[in-house]
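Next comes this protein.

***
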Amino acid sequence: MQKMKKLILLFSAIASVAYAQKAPRIQTFQDLVKAPNVHVKAPADEKILGITLWSDDFSDPANWTLDNSGQSGIEFGWNINSTNDGWWSSNGITSTSGGNYAELVNGDPTASPGTQALNVVYTLTSAQPIDIAALGGSNQVSLQFEQYGARFNDLQEIQISTDGSTWVTVGNNLDKPVLSSAGGSAYANPDTKIINLATFLSVTPSPIWVRFSWTTNFPSSATNPNVWVTYGWYIDDVKIVTNPTNDLSVTSTFWGSVGLPYYQIPDEQVTEIGFSADVFNGGVNTQTNVQLNINANNGAWTDSSSPVSINSLDTAVIELTTFYTPPATPGNISITRTITADSTDDIPANNVISNIDFAVTDFIYARDNGTPSGSTSNGTDGFESGNLFDIFQDATLKAINVRLPGGANGATVGTEIFVKLYSVDATTGDFVFESESAPFVLASNNLNTNLVLELEPYVDVYAGTTYLAVVGSYSAGLRVSNAGKSDPQTTFFLDMADNTWYYSTNTPMVRMNFDPILNVMEQSELSQAVVLPNPTDQHATLRFDLKNTSDVNITVTDLTGKVMQRNILAQLTAGAQEIGLSSEQWAAGIYTVTITTNGAILTKKFVKR
């Protein structure tokens, strides 16, 4: 599947040059969900493994050792009782056994001031080692427990040790979404977590200690009280159970064209789509004739991967060697993916793969899945946020569509925004500015809707090239709706506070729009204005088109309104114009260019780094 790997290799180069990860974001106190939480009961068909070798339901607190990092009081660190002690949950965990449970607390961030402790690591450790071998087990065991809580800026880890002092992290809750005012959810109550320990243990395992550890997920920001906020972490009914005989689990999946999945594809950009899955054999027996099966639109196209055998505790990357090309006509496509093998799986729930639903469209190109969930912001700083897109057929890009959330935590009415298009330099991985929209001031009817911002000028995009489409603002007030998840280094975020590109794993609702009707617009006296490059380190150039021969005034101002440059140009001839800007002499900041002629006014903003 070499064709599918092209962009992944390119992104490795990008990350090594200029970009870093910006996910997850540090949540602020204002992001806290302070309303009473709603208990979500877990489904009744929780996964069940084999024989229970050891269990503890916290009925005897002496079975556990608490290290609360020098803090005292029930509101800090771990405690074991049958009463909820934290600020967020009213009833604690609804566990199977009931009675006592372990609870993690770190003060009350809603107090004034917040009482959370800083620079702490709280641990809950089994007081005695668990001798799996003496209990009749081998390395083929899993750690299972029930939990409740929610993630904020905290790191919740599960660890084991064979000597009581050296710890190995075997699991965490970073797969859970952050619960904030922008979206996310609490864990199911209870949520059963299962961690296969076979790869961490020897065949005849030494006795092990089990530890639950809590601290911040942002140690580099340890002085910020926000990174020490927790909703709480509740644990009950901890078990060591034998692994099943036959258990394939899907640990990750991939689908897309040249490394990127699209949920809306313009008919002119339709191309081959590939599929793969990483499958782990967590059972005791070798699994034979394991296949990934694809079914598009109820049998309109079907195919399967070549059958493979997967030994116990091995992972196989299973991929189709053929590709699916959807019909190049507008319509909905539904893809069903299944894993099959010779044996009947003891835990079929962990190898179920969700369906894929996408659409071939007339002119919209979208990476987001269309269901808003949460949003991206940058506090008081300006930012840009958007997605990469591959082009498979030459076309002209007219506009970029965005969705911005409304409501109490939505984008601020009156905020000035823009959209931009960058191309990706295939050699360096740099983002090269191509075009942008005119500044646009948000009104209330622009929120929670599909907002279309035209590029000035339009851009001819070329097959074989990758582009980055973004929405941005130079000031606070912008929030961008997210819909779905992105693989690392496929969605990007420019933090204007440090002028650095980061990648995000949330997919913003930023789309390409190839609508040909956007060509039908009356040209004003001024059009196609752009400042290149933008941002600029040195000298910049203003380009624009003039409809008629006329006098033109050009003024450049900084954020205070100070005039940095003024050009009064008499009787410029109609057509394309190019004016140099002396930006190499100016301080870093945001500048506004105003072009005036025959009553027409056009403004552009650019950044001097």
Observations:
- The helical segments are 2-17.
- The longest helix spans residues 2-17.
- The first strand starts at residue 20 and ends at 21.
